[in-house]
Design brief:
With 309 residues, the chain is α+β, with helices and mostly antiparallel strands. The protein is built from eight helices and 16 strands. The radius of gyration is 20 Å and the shape is globular.
Length: 309
C-alpha cells in the first residue's frame, strides 16, 4: 500500500518464524483486497469495472467499506472513500507524484466522480454496485484495519505483549520485556527534538493525520514564495486542506477507526473538528498553527486517556 510495517512482540524464539508468517499473511490479505497500488487487488478491479456491474466483496473489504461509509455520512462528506480520483490527480496516489496543481477542467472532472452517496452497497449480500467512474481509496482506513487484523491475530495466538505498526498507525497490548509500557510520542511539527504528547498504550490504538510530511510546493512567482499543497484532501472542495490544522491524533480501541477519524477531523478543521470530537467523546489531540508556532488542543477524552495510561 505504498508504506511500511513493523511488529514488536514478546514471544519464545522458537515461535518467531511462524508468527512472522502469520503476520505477513494477514497484511497480504489486506493488500490483496484493498491496495490501489496493486493492479490486481479487489479494489483496483472494482475501480476499473464497467458502470452497472455488481461486485461480491470479501468480508474484510465489506467491513472496511461499511465503516468508511458510516463516517462519510456522519461527517457529511468531509470523509469520503470515493476520493481516489482526487488522490491521483493531486499526485498522492499510485498514478505518481506531481509538482503542479491540476487545472480547473481536470479538477472539475475528478470532482464529478467523488461522492460516497453514489455507492450502492447491499450489506446483506456484501455486494457493491459500480455506478460508473467510482474510484475507492482506502488509504486513510485500510492501514489501521491492517493493524487491527495483526493485533487481533497475535492476541489469539497467545501473544499478550505486542506493538503493531503500519504506515505510522499503531496499536499496543501488554508491556515490553522489562515491564515498562509501550510509550508513543506524538510528533511536534517541525521539531524532531520535541513531542506534542507522549502516551502509554495498552489495549489502545493511535493514529495521526498531518499536512507537514507529504506535500509538494509550487512556486507562485510572488514575493511570498512557493505554495504548499498537502496530501490531505478535502473531498468537498476537491483541493488539499487549507486550514489551521497541522495534525490530528486520535486514540481508539480500534486502529481502523482511529485512522479514519484522524483524517476526518483534519479535514473538518479546528472549529468543526473539535466540535465533532467533543460531541462524540473522542480522544483527540489537535496541533494547530498559531502565528509562527503551534499550539496543542486536546479534547477532554484525550486528557483522560493520558492520565489513565
Amino acid at each position: 500500500m505504498g508504506t511500511t510495517w513493523s511488529v514488536k512482540l514478546v514471544a519464545p524464539a522458537a515461535a518467531l518464524i511462524a508468527l512472522e508468517r502469520g503476520i505477513r499473511a494477514r497484511l497480504d490479505e489486506v493488500v490483496a483486497q484493498m491496495s490501489t497500488w496493486e493492479t490486481d487487488s479487489d479494489i483496483s478491479r472494482y475501480n476499473r469495472a464497467e458502470a452497472g456491474s455488481a461486485h461480491a466483496l470479501p468480508a474484510a473489504f465489506a467491513e472496511v467499506l461499511q465503516a468508511a461509509l458510516a463516517l462519510a455520512a456522519d461527517t457529511d462528506g468531509a470523509y469520503d472513500p470515493t476520493i481516489g480520483p482526487l488522490t491521483d490527480l493531486w499526485g498522492f496516489g499510485p498514478a505518481g507524484a506531481r509538482t503542479q496543481a491540476p487545472g480547473r477542467a481536470p479538477l472539475a472532472q475528478a470532482r464529478e466522480r467523488v461522492d460516497w452517496r453514489r455507492l450502492r452497497f447491499d450489506a446483506a449480500r456484501n455486494e457493491l454496485l459500480q455506478p460508473g467512474g467510482a474510484y475507492l481509496d482506502f488509504s486513510s482506513i485500510a492501514k489501521g484495519y491492517g493493524v487491527d487484523r495483526v493485533a487481533d491475530w497475535l492476541l489469539a495466538q497467545g501473544v499478550a505483549d505486542c506493538l503493531v505498526e503500519v504506515g505510522g498507525e499503531l496499536r499496543a497490548h501488554g508491556r515490553k520485556p522489562d515491564g515498562s509500557a509501550w510509550r508513543i510520542a506524538v510528533e511536534q511539527p517541525g521539531r524532531d527534538d520535541q513531542a506534542a504528547a507522549v502516551i502509554a498504550l495498552d489495549g489502545l490504538a493511535i493514529a495521526t493525520s498531518g499536512d507537514y510530511r507529504r506535500y509538494f510546493e509550487q512556486s507562485s512567482g510572488a514575493a511570498d514564495g512557493a505554495r504548499r499543497y498537502s496530501h490531505t484532501l478535502d473531498p468537498r472542495s476537491g483541493a488539499p486542506i487549507d486550514n489551521a490544522v497541522a495534525s490530528v491524533t486520535v486514540l481508539h480501541e480500534r486502529c481502523m477507526h482511529a485512522d479514519a477519524l484522524a483524517t476526518a477531523l483534519t479535514v473538518l478543521g479546528a472549529h468543526a473538528g473539535l466540535a465533532y470530537a467533543n460531541r462524540h467523546g473522542l480522544a483527540a489531540l489537535f496541533v494547530l498553527r498559531e502565528n509562527d508556532g503551534f499550539i496543542a488542543r486536546p479534547t477532554p477524552g484525550f486528557v483522560a486517556r493520558q492520565r489513565s495510561a
